[in-house]
Design brief:
The structure is a single chain. With about 450 residues, the chain is of the alpha/beta class. It contains 13 helices and 20 strands. It has helices at about 5-15, 35-40, 50-65, 85-90, 100-110, 125-135, 145-155, 195-205, 230-245, 270-290, 300-305, 340, 430-435; strands spanning about 20-25, 25-30, 30-35, 45-50, 70-75, 95-100, 120, 140, 165-170, 210-215, 250, 295-300, 310-320, 325-330, 350, 360-365, 375-380, 390, 415-420, 420-425. The strands form three sheets. Strands 4, 13, 14, 15, 16, 17, 18, 19 and 20 form a nine-stranded mixed beta sheet that branches. An eight-stranded parallel barrel has the order 5-6-7-8-9-10-11-12, surrounded by seven helices. A hairpin with a 2-residue loop joins strand 19 (about 415-420) and strand 20 (about 420-425). The structure holds pyridoxal-5'-phosphate. Pyridoxal-5'-phosphate binds next to helix 11.
Amino acid sequence: MANINPFWMTNRLALFPEATRARDDSLFIAGHSLASLADGRLTPLYVYDRATLDLTIAEYQSALRAYYPGESRITYAGKAFLCKSIAAWTQQHNLMVDCTGEGEIGIAIAGGVPREKILVHGVNKSSADLKSAFQHAGTIVVDNLTELERICTHVDRYTGTQVSLWLRLVPGLAVSTHHAHTQTGQHDSKFGMTREEILQAVQISKKANLQINGIHFHQGSNFRDPEPLIPAIDLALDIAKEIGFNGEWHFCPGGGWGVAYHEDELPSPSIENYARGIAEAVVEGCKTRGLELPVLHLEPGRSLVARAGVAIYRVGAIKQRGDKTWILTDGGMADNPRFALYGARYSCLPVEGLDREIDTKVSIAGPYCESGDVVIEDLPMPNLKEGELIAIPVAGAYHLSMSSNYNGARRPEALLLEEGRVEVMLRRETVDDLLRRDP
Ligand SMILES: Cc1ncc(COP(=O)(O)O)c(C=O)c1O
């Protein structure tokens, strides 16, 4: 029998992946009961909905086709979440993959990403990162002059293969993100090069017979208004004009488009508006400067994978402390450090018993020995019971990729869900895994 769900629950359900359904007062994704998935496994457990991944990338691709008349590409920011299955998924959609250094390059290769689709970032790439980039990548985005000098000195040792070199600009302009730690394009940022350094980099590369054929910037993460990108795009196009690229050139205004993490933030910002805002600014900016249209790259991470993922935790103990009700779960800062890093907000639903009305406000915290090990603060919820499961939506980005073994935490299992199919993308770590690095 169909349930008539309370309003609060229906609202929160919109944060969950596309294939989520509330059936018999319980959560299902792609036809799989979350309670059954969790009962046969250890929690915390992460599940990803393949339909959400496919639909989101289709939105990006159709927006670029609609609004950008030149060639365009999408580069998945691997830092959001990368494993072999996700790397393989990127190739089903013809994506490039942004890898930060040797480690992510290794995962991308193992997932079948070919050289021409690997793009390497990094604010202070080590020699090993650069060596791996020259061996396996198609594009390297140079962050600073020291890195460029290192490339010029050692390029002959790096196998002599053809790698496309882009320069990362720090535009000196901020976008509106919810925390200073998610800004990257402001004038005092540690990332990228100033206009003057970029022009110097072009001279250095010319002397070393290296060709620069792209400009990149990334202003910040989880912003919802594309407007502040426009002056940064203009600045980058001014610099492109000064450089005077010969032939095909590449331009990437990074990623960072936001998603709704909490029902207060719904609806999620439109991918179409974002891509359209960028495409129109690039077309107009090139026209006024007499520039050839670049190959336009977008570099999304969070907006591609965050909503596809759900974290399932089990409630252990419940404590009343003054006005605060602490729900203590088995997940927390070791699998999701985002609250501890920058006060990220979340919402959640119980996995079962969705017909309950809200009757309390709770704060949800993990089992780790840090007071900052909090997942959610002051969220209206129904009366939860010890032993029950909760599901935290929008958990697909920057959770598992930032996870740790703090307090001996074993990093969680991650499943990819489709109708009639469950794929283990990452198995849960064991104590043996914790000991593997001990000599
Ligand atoms: C260079 C670069 N590109 C893309 C991204 C992806 O950002 P987001 O996941 O917010 O889209 C990041 C994130 O930090 C980044 O540093």
